Amino acid sequence: PQVRAMDKREQMANQLLMRGHATMDELLEASFGEWPPKGLEILHRNEQVVQLHTQLQSFDTEIDPQEMHPDGFLYKEVGGLGRIHGERSLYVRGDLKMKSSTLGHEAAHVLQGDHSYRAQEYLGHDYSRITPPSNDYVQAAIDQHFALDQLKSRLRKAWKKATKKDEQKIETYAAYLARGIEVQARIHEIMLAGYPRWGRLPATTEELQSALIAAGLTPPKQLRTQLQSLPDHKTRRETFKHWKPLANRLLSSLYWMANRMNMPLPAASDINFIQKGLSSAGHVDFWQATLPKIYADLIEMYGDKPGRARFGLGRNEIHAARLQHQQDIARLAATEWQTYNDTGHIYAAVTPKESEDLMASLANLGIGCAVTEKGRFVWVDFGDENALEKALGKKISTPPEVEQKLAASVSLSPATP
């Protein structure tokens, strides 16, 4: 029999898992097949390292490992875990035959963590969102429009033999999927699965909606009609193709099966599952407001410069924070520092105007400091040499000529300023 060629993304995923670590850019490249992707304006490299682990058994999670799948009510086991706080790491089950889609899903969770719980570490100053915005977006839609009883009622009609235990599993699974981070991770899965077919990522609301429909999400009828009435409908439909059989490509066992049978992707089925509990008005709001917000937030985390501005949702604050962080680090790196008498304190002799900028940068980076006027200079002291070295990512080495120049400018006492 003919052997089906392994998708190059699957090869990259296996290589990264065998190595045991990868940068976020490497994980995104393994997910999409190339990075940066076409269609977006990625302006920075993300070289934050993620530790990769494999293990053979199921994972202990806050959900039952035997989750209920919305299509046919089959059971499936958890394939991986990605940490959104604490250590930057993810886990993928080693016995999965195809690992790339699971690796991509869990990488999305690590990326979410870098912009919420780990935001201060990742962006270099106090930009922690505490809770990912995607959670807020979905929670607002759930609070307004979601009814668990309606979801159960619709599922009972589709599944005549549902028991009380089955309904409890439905409730558990719905609560799990209704979290914004899970909806967003599944949109990420849809994008990485569709990218080879589409050749680029969606960059407008209409393109996003067309891409999600192509992947198998069920839109409100009026929205589908509206999209079909737009002048660029034919172009969008040709670009964001519906799932159809592809020769010699095996994304993963489930994704390939969905592709061959013209079924929704598993990630799309999960989101459809949640949509079954939305009211008609909620279904429209979910497509017109919630999904664009979640996707805009996702591409900002990728590093897209316009980000939410593409969707008329305001300024990309993540990009602004990254620029500020780069400026702060550059200012610290350009400053001449010296230690004094092995006290562990480190100083910079600067002008009063320079001291204001320097103190602002230190504050942005979460480094406390004190200032003392000495002669013609302001001496900035922040007491912890290690903090500066960590911020700059290198060891501090003050040239002798700089030390002589600073020492000649003013006389220091051993006491802390």
Descriptive terms for the model:
single chain, 417 residues, alpha+beta, four-stranded mixed sheet, four-stranded antiparallel sheet, 18 helices, elongated, disordered N terminus, disordered C terminus
Round the mean pLDDT to the nearest integer and report it: 75
Count all strands and give the number. Answer: 10
Largest sheet: 4 strands, mixed
Uncertain segments of ≥5 residues (pLDDT<50)? Answer: 1-5, 56-77, 245-263, 405-417
Q: Which structural class do you get from the secondary structure elements?
A: alpha+beta
Q: Into which percentage range does the β-strand content fall? A: 5-15%
Spatial strand arrangement across the major sheet = 1-2-6-5
State the helicity in percent bands: 40-55%
Q: Summarize the helix and strand pattern as letters.
A: HEHEEEEEHHHHHHHHHHHHHEEHEEHH
- Tally the helices: 18
What's the gyration radius in Å? 26 Å
Span of the ends, CA to CA? 79 Å
Oligomer: single chain
Shape: elongated
